[in-house]
Design goal:
With about 500 residues, the protein is mainly β. It folds into three domains: about 130 residues, Sandwich (Jelly Rolls); about 210 residues, no CATH class; about 130 residues, Spermadhesin, CUB domain (Jelly Rolls, Sandwich), CATH 2.60.120.290. The chain is about 10% helix and about 45% strand. Strands 28, 29, 30, 31, 32, 33 and 34 form a seven-stranded mixed beta sheet that branches. Strands 1, 2, 4, 7 and 9 form a five-stranded antiparallel beta sheet that branches. The structure holds 2-acetamido-2-deoxy-beta-D-glucopyranose (NAG) (12 copies). One 2-acetamido-2-deoxy-beta-D-glucopyranose binds next to strand 30, strand 33 and helix 5. One 2-acetamido-2-deoxy-beta-D-glucopyranose binds next to loops. Keywords: Signal.
Length: about 500
């Protein structure tokens, strides 16, 4: 009985070894029928590779073709020292992993490599390759960028195939965005976008949108044109974008990154040698950045749009002397670019809502979404609310406002829900510019309305301060407030 069990165990074990550990095979080439997915080591089954196993799997891709590779490598115990898996693409870019489950990669000609090194663990390993005899199926769109643009072109990366023509050279930066999709899905979508240095996909490939994101630099065309292609199969797991602008505006920038859901916060910017920049993006200007902290040296210029030589879209500039004094500051626009020159600084931005709750004295500004952008954003009401922790003296000083086409701007300050200040301006009742309006309360609202939601809006810019009012003085202000209400009531 024990003898038979021993034989059985022996057979099972030896059988396992012989089938479970395939030899390290030669290069993988497209099958005759390219609709067939090639799977290694065996179709539909995971195989455990033993410790000390090393193999480099070469995937060949003919010129003009692409391949879609899905890899799973699960170690029986997670190693922390060196990677069990490396994926090396056509331009020798290496990604290293300790653990992957159905991770997706895209190779173009001449191909790529998958390197398995099990080291001191057993690894369950499997990959599949699907070849495509052309790079893309989408009809391309054509985009132009020019040095005089203040607003970069944004390309949605879920379905993209475009040809860019620049006035000088084209610059591209990836901005990964917060999304309902997982980081893994977004990562694989960014891997599927390839950027070519020329008018079509037969030119030199600069790399994928994912490599661009990780490079902390711009991809720049050598000539006037750039081609962006999404490889097959299509994925829709991303709301990330590619920022495209004329290199004339960005040529001073060394480090340049897109900040979104994959970004590290706070952001360390090194402009000791060359300017350093980062951009964020909000579809339609619907959400804002809240700039909460700047520490370090140098000058941080903040643009609504891209960095420009003319600085016509510069919205704020901060230097050491202004560090931390008047923040947080709400930053609007669709694309926002933060460019540091001459120093090393750490910049922290957080979501919108933090800027709406005042805890300390602030001095800054309030703008509409499109101010200085010349964009036509479709909305009929842009409402911004601020709340304070106790009574604050709010001051508003309108510098600029477009009230054409029956647009209006209303400023309200409330104290415990009681109106303290309420002004509504329109073209027949315009505000006096450069005049301070103030009131003590714990809530303020600025509403910019337009009866024609799709009209072009010049927007507004208001200098804004909020100063905490001492508790001992609060009673006195109540009196002022009542007088103010009565006084407003007389009109
Ligand atoms: C090619 O492979 C696909 C799927 O594997 C199959 O449906 C098709 O019939 C094959 N074509 C030929 C010509 O063998
Ligand atoms: C592969 O496995 C799936 C489910 O795991 C099954 O539906 C399918 O029929 C299998 N295919 C082959 C070729 O064994
Ligand atoms: C290894 O790490 C992965 C992901 O980090 C985790 O899902 C898995 O459970 C870990 N495996 C072991 C054996 O700890
Ligand atoms: C690897 O698998 C073998 C056979 O199943 C087992 O004997 C060994 O202990 C495993 N090694 C590790 C490091 O898990
Ligand atoms: C490109 O490949 C897709 C399928 O992968 C196919 O449907 C399409 O017809 C091909 N386009 C060209 C121009 O060959
Ligand atoms: C881009 O510019 C070219 C010529 O400079 C022009 O023919 C084309 O219409 C422009 N395309 C777009 C989308 O503006
Ligand atoms: C790229 O090169 C291939 C093969 O030389 C050719 O068939 C294809 O038309 C070229 N594509 C473009 C867009 O020029
Ligand atoms: C700003 O950052 C510095 C350094 O990280 C930190 O010491 C300081 O507390 C921060 N200030 C605010 C207001 O978050
Ligand atoms: C603003 O955009 C309009 C088109 O919507 C254009 O005609 C105008 O020249 C632009 N103005 C500036 C200053 O760029
Ligand atoms: C608002 O009311 C609370 C009590 O309800 C009071 O403590 C506070 O001082 C009031 N705020 C102001 C600005 O008067
Ligand atoms: C609020 O600030 C304004 C501007 O500095 C000032 O004129 C006004 O007296 C202040 N109001 C109160 C109640 O302190
Ligand atoms: C503004 O509104 C008034 C009254 O509703 C209307 O008569 C006028 O035509 C409007 N003006 C514009 C420019 O739309």
């Amino acid at each position: 009985m024990w003898f038979y069990i021993a034989i059985f165990v022996f057979l099972a074990f030896s059988n396992g070894v012989s089938t479970d550990v395939p030899d390290c095979p030669g290069p993988f080439n497209p099958p005759n029928n390219i609709s067939t997915k090639v799977v290694y080591p065996v179709s539909n089954d995971t195989v455990t590779f033993p410790t000390g196993y090393n193999c480099v799997y070469q995937i060949n891709v003919p010129q003009g073709w692409s391949s879609y590779v899905v890899v799973t490598a699960i170690p029986s115990s997670n190693l922390t020292n060196s990677p069990i898996l490396q994926v090396i693409d056509f331009n020798q870019n290496v990604e290293s992993f300790q653990y992957v489950r159905f991770e997706k990669f895209y190779f173009i000609a001449p191909g790529g490599r998958i390197k398995l090194s099990t080291q001191t663990t057993n690894v369950t390993f499997l990959f599949s390759v699907q070849w495509y005899s052309n790079l893309t199926v989408y009809q391309p769109t054509f985009l132009n960028v020019s040095a005089s643009d203040t607003q970069p072109v944004t390309v949605d990366l879920s379905t993209v195939n475009c040809h860019v023509t620049a006035e000088t050279r084209a610059s591209a930066v990836t901005i990964p965005l917060d999304s309902i999709y997982t980081i893994e899905d977004q990562r694989s979508t960014l891997r599927s976008i390839f950027i070519f240095d020329g008018p079509n996909e037969n030119t030199t490939c600069l790399g994928s949108a994912y490599q661009l994101f990780n490079s902390n630099r711009q991809f720049v065309s050598t000539g006037k044109t750039l081609t962006v292609v999404q490889l097959q199969p299509s994925t829709y797991y991303s709301s990330s974008i590619l920022l495209i602008q004329d290199f004339e505006n960005t040529k001073e920038i060394g480090q340049y990154r897109g900040v979104g859901s994959l970004g590290d916060l706070p952001i360390v910017m090194d402009a000791s040698k060359q300017s350093s920049a980062f951009s964020t993006y909000s579809f339609g200007g619907l959400s804002s950045d809240c700039l909460v902290n700047i520490t370090g040296t140098g000058t941080l210029d903040v643009y609504y749009g891209g960095k420009t030589e003319s600085k016509s879209n510069l919205i704020a500039s901060y230097s050491e002397s202004s560090n931390g004094l008047n923040l947080p500051q709400k930053i609007r626009g669709v694309v926002r670019t933060y460019a540091l020159t001459g120093g090393i600084a750490t910049v922290q931005i957080v979501p919108n809502s933090v800027c709406g709750l005042l805890k300390h004295n602030v001095a800054g500004f309030i703008t509409s979404r499109e101010y200085k952008t010349n964009l036509t954003l479709r909305y009929s009401e842009d409402r911004q609310s601020y709340y304070s922790d106790g009574p604050f003296n709010y001051t508003l000083n309108i510098q600029n406002v477009d009230l054409s086409q029956n647009k209006s701007l209303s400023l309200s300050i409330y104290n415990n829900h009681t109106g303290v200040v309420n002004f509504v301006y329109n073209s027949s009742n315009p505000p006096s510019l450069n005049t301070v309006v103030s009131g003590v309360g714990n809530e303020m609202e600025v509403i910019y309305s337009s009866p024609y939601s799709n009209s072009k809006k010049g927007g507004f810019y208001i200098d804004f301060t909020a100063t905490k009012v001492e508790k001992s003085a609060a009673k006195y202000f109540d009196f002022i407030v009542i007088c103010a209400i009565l006084w407003i009531g007389l009109f």
